[in-house]
Amino acid sequence: xxxxxxxxxxxxxxxxxxxxxxxxxxxxxxxxxxxxxxxxxxxxxxxxxxxxxxxxxxxxxxxxxxxxxxxxxxxxxxxxxxxxxxxxxxxxxxxxxxxxxxxxxxxxxxxxxxxxxxxxxxxxxxxxxxxxxxxxxxxxxxxxxxxxxxxxxxxxxxxxxxxxxxxxxxxxxxxxxxxxxxxxxxxxxxxxxxxxxxxxxxxxxxxxxxxxxxxxxxxxxxxxxxxxxxxxxxxxxxxxxxxxxxxxxxxxxxxxxxxxxxxxxxxxxxxxxxxxxxxxxxxxxxxxxxxxxxxxxxxxxxxxxxxxxxxxxxxxxxxxxxxxxxxxxxxxxxxxxxxxxxxxxxxxxxxxxxxxxxxxxxxxxxxxxxxxxxxxxxxxxxxxxxxxxxxxxxxxxxxxxxxxxxxxxxxxxxxxxx
Length: 418
Prior knowledge:
Layout: H1 12-29, H2 35-38, H3 40-47, H4 51-74, H5 81-102, H6 106-121, H7 124-133, H8 140-169, H9 171-192, H10 207-211, H11 215-218, H12 221-253, H13 264-289, H14 291-309, H15 317-333, H16 335-344, H17 351-379, H18 386-416
Helix pairs in contact: 1-7, 1-8, 1-9, 4-6, 4-17, 5-6, 5-7, 5-9, 7-8, 8-9, 8-13, 8-16, 12-13, 12-15, 12-16, 12-17, 12-18, 13-14, 13-15, 13-16, 14-15, 14-16, 14-18, 17-18
């Protein structure tokens, strides 16, 4: 007998319920994602970290994600994504709890943050795959848009949650709370996701090497270009999100005696909500005007803003907040359109493998970019001057222009082909 609380997505009402439930689960499960970057100035002082070490702790989260995601997401073509999702919720719960209990400095923080990243690797894209497998094709475009946009919402709430809880209860409770929400998501998805057997394709190769064989995916030129664009998108977005609180804190310090009307963590939360709305809106525009065109436009504007953003630290704080929100709208706004481009261009039997390669490329970039930013800051004065931050944001803008170049080059080549 089918569980009435476990919709299969065969009707609009059931589909909407399932999408809403999975989006809610994603947001709650992400409370710990940016807890460390949100409290970066505190941890630098508490553990006497260099900027490079702080960058490593921020980046290792996505390093753990990168190591796990090729296997976990590719497995969704061979087994029910629900199983991977539930186990990964448990891993995320234990990892956040371990960070709160046992982290005492650089090395211990690296271990537990990497385990947290492994938990995300088994929930974000496998969760999307679990959702898509339970929906009819007519519901897929908007399901992709809302689910991927909620990734940005999860990041925003993670910033706000960390700042709020830290203010009242300290950093350990921040991570205990994240662990508790991962446990709640585990129970929620155990109820709402119907077990769904997966029929293996006759063309699938056996064993681990078969799971990690991305050659057929790479030969798909449409998927490949969106995967590369996603890598550029993730480099810029996660570098900016990992260091934006520290940048805004620096900007506030340039005006001693003034009281900011909004804390940096709250700014990032509000900016992320605008970014989520932009992602859904740009996704709709992409359906009407073409994905490559909309993604290219977003990357162009984001790159231009990034060129001047770091040099704007001395602007009045309210102006800087507005600029931060605008910047977030464009570096986050192309997310849903890129995801839809990857998924809709994938072969149905290789959708999991395609999403795995996308995540591998994207989160490898996400894991490296905070480290590179920390390195640049250390080599340009430690982030104690406006030029230091200006050069840092240039490194983010460069990848937006690289993504733009790849998309424009591909469009031009396709138009020239007979």
